[in-house]
Structures are given as C-alpha cells and as structure tokens.
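Final report, Chapter 2: Outcomes

The project's central promise was a pipeline that accepts a single protein chain and returns its three-dimensional structure in a standardized token representation, suitable for archiving and comparison. That pipeline is now operational. To close this chapter, we reproduce one record exactly as it appears in the project archive, with the input sequence first and the structure output second.
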Amino acid sequence: MTSPTYEPTDRRPIAARNRPVFQRMANALASRGCSANLISILGMLAALVAGFALFLTAHWPHIGRVLLLVAAGGMQLRLLANMLDGMVAIASGKASAVGELYNEAPDRISDMAVLIGAGYAISGDITLGYLAACAALLVAYIRTLGKSAGAHNEFCGPMAKQQRMFFMTVACLYLALTPSNWQPVITCRGHAYGLIAMTLALIIFGCIITAWRRLGRIVNVLRK
C-alpha cells in the first residue's frame, strides 16, 4: 500500500517562483535527482560565507570591497536556495515533513550568521547586529507559534526574510561600489554609525513592526 503524497501547506508567497527561468532550473535539478534538503543546507552555507565575509571586512579593510561583494552574493544565493529547495521537492514528488524542517532550521542559522556578521563588519555595530538577529528570530518564532496554535503560516512584512536580505544586500553593494566620501556616517554621543549599522537599525525597527502585525493577524484568526 503506497503512502499518501505529502502536500506542503502555507508556502511563503514568492512571485519569482512563477518565472520560467526558475521553473526550468528547479525541474532540471529535480530531474537530476538533486536533494531539496541538500539545497537547503547549501543555502545555509552561502549565508555563513556571507556572514564571515562581513566579519572579515573589519579585519581586512584592504580587500573590504571584495568581501562586501562576496557577502552580497552569498545573501542572494541563500535566497535562491530557499526558493529552489521547495520547488525541487515538489517537482520531484519528494516533499515531506522532514523537508519542512530542513527548510526552517537552516533559515534561522542563516539569519543569525548574516546579521551578527554584519554587526562585526566595517561600518557595523556589534550590539545592533545581535539585536537584529534576535528580532529576526522573534519574527520567525511568532509565525511558527501561530501555526502550531492552529492558525496558518503568517508571512506578512514589512521586514520578512526577503526584505532583511534585500536591505543588507543593497547596503553591501553600496559600500562596495561607491567612493568612501559618499558613504554616510551618523555620530551619536561620540559613537559613529555607518551604513551597515543604520541598516541593522532599520531591520530591527521593521522586525518589531512585522512581529506586531503577525501577532495581531494570528490572534484574529484564532479568535474566529
């Protein structure tokens, strides 16, 4: 007797999934027997590389621009892997509850790696880096808590995973590609905050709003 096919529910809405280039890519990977779980792990490794590259910018400033480009590329590869793993799982007919776990757990490590690494980066701030990582974890925790309580997965923003990586990628690219005198610095109480630190502050603020919005939506669903 064959077991019923697992159907993933409440997938994150990603418009890029409908683009032919990514559909062809997912089908090609599935036809070659590529594991969706492996893609999830590779996405996490890309984020770890990005976070480490950010960390190194403060120690190797002479190649800081190259490291910032590496970090930006790693973040985008992480998002690409996060999109493709589910597409490959469905295309190959191997979607499973274990696959959902592989999709979620590496994501949390990826967020911490990038945001904490950004805290240690040139123009970053260590405290803001750790606070941004905690805020990102809170946003994800509220979503999974709502799901376990009987609501659906709530992916609303304004600072969901894609937006966090978008703003951090833009900040890295700007620092890597513009002259030093174009790069903003804010001084507050004798402490200078560069663009990475400002981006981390924006992520923290956006995550607080996102957590509040998700919590409110989940409460409304559960009350019904």
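Archive annotation: The helical segments are 20-31, 36-57, 64-91, 97-120, 126-149, 161-177, 195-223.
This record, like all others produced under the grant, will remain available to the consortium after the project formally closes.
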